[in-house]
Amino acid sequence: MVFVEIANDIGDRAKEVGKVIGEGTERAVEVIDDAMSDVGDAVNEVASVIDDATSEVGHAADNFGHGTENIVSDIGHGMEDLGHKAENPPTPYYKYLNTMVVIFVILTTLLAVSASGWSVPLNIQNFYSNVKDGGCRSFAGGKNNLNDGQGNSGFGFCTDTANVVYLSGRSSLGDMDVDCDGARNCGGLSGDFQAETAFDDILKGEDYGIKTLDASIHQFSVLGTCHVDLTGIIRPLALVAVVCNKQLLYSIWGDTNGCDDDDFTGEASVSLAQMCFPNEGLNGNNGHEPHDVLYLAFTGTDAVVGPRDANWKAKSASEFQRSLKAFGDSIIKKKFGTSSPSPNPSGSPETGHVSCTWIGHCAGAKCTTSDDCDGDLQCKKGVCAVDGDRKPPTCSWVGQCLRARCKLESDCANTLVRASGKCLL
């Protein structure tokens, strides 16, 4: 009778999932369609060694294209039939039950992460365009020979821009391996699982309300390696903006790569990975290989996501992502200029000076030599400056510095004023 109750309970749950999926968005249906196609193949592989009830589930999975709601309903009916047979189950019955549990976990996980990301603000998009082909001039720890986990080296954590640290390669950005560490092990979808994450002592000691991160719920980025410690540059649990698949997602710095990974870079929690690339079937054993992901970590104590800056007890990945947005938008505005689209300084040369396209290295940016400054700007007294005697004030508001276009004087950094539609001295 225990098997009957379990089977009927899972059948009821499968029907409920079917109703939810039937009401879901078109994108969620496409995601689940792809995933269930893979599940159907897996069910077919074991169909030869299980009873007739298993074949019903395999048949349902193979015909998933006829409608998501119907297919899950079929699974529910299959489980009900299995319940009637459970009093005298065949020898391989337990295999069938395990298969159904895995299917149920996959369905609920996909529903939890089906939300899409946010639109990319123009200033972040401009920064992405400027750094996507590499060219970093300064790396944390002086190391730019880290590995991506695919056998490619030449990666490091770039520190050449004020207020941020980002992963950069010789001619690319990062890839996205999948981290399943933390509370739930991603429904068993990882062969490399650890029950804790790097900053659990902070989570437990500072009233976050959780003991560890859950990779299937909390979006977190994995930064730093065995030989490159970033804790002196960025703070644990700091905000990390991730640009992936033409969208912006917010995450936290939640884990590091240990010495067992040979200084690997480019990794994210499974919930972040599946939000970034919902159609790639990402899990703990399958990552995103192209090097087109920007991990943008913000420096300073004010960039740390505190106990009240997000819903740490969220029940789903989408709920946690939504709870991060207000804090994430505020940090982008504070550290990077604005969270809404704004023009990057551009245009024709004026009075002998070219416009600035190298974000973080424009007039007013801190520098050591003139090589740290964009275009014809020169490093004068530690600040990138135009030719002549006047030196612009230090500018930390990226996109709103000297000669940036503006509509109001409040759009200009520091003591700059609006003149002829631009921020000027």
Automatic annotation (TrEMBL):
Catalytic reaction list: Endohydrolysis of beta-(1->4)-linkages between D-glucosamine residues in a partly acetylated chitosan
Protein name: Endo-chitosanase
Role played: Chitosanase catalyzing the endo-type cleavage of chitosan, the deacylated form of chitin. Chitosanase may be crucial in the degradation of the deacetylated portion of chitin in the fungal cell wall.
Taxonomic source organism: Drechslerella dactyloides
Domain of life: Eukaryota
Single GO biological process annotation from the record: polysaccharide catabolic process
Main location: secreted
The keyword DNA damage belongs to this UniProt entry's keyword annotation: no
Record-listed E.C. numbers: 3.2.1.132
Any Pfam family matching the protein: Glyco_hydro_75
Leading EC class: hydrolase
Keyword hit for Hydrolase: yes
Family (UniProt): Belongs to the glycosyl hydrolase 75 family.
Compartments where located: Secreted
Keyword annotations: Carbohydrate metabolism, Glycosidase, Hydrolase, Membrane, Polysaccharide degradation, Secreted, Signal, Transmembrane, Transmembrane helix
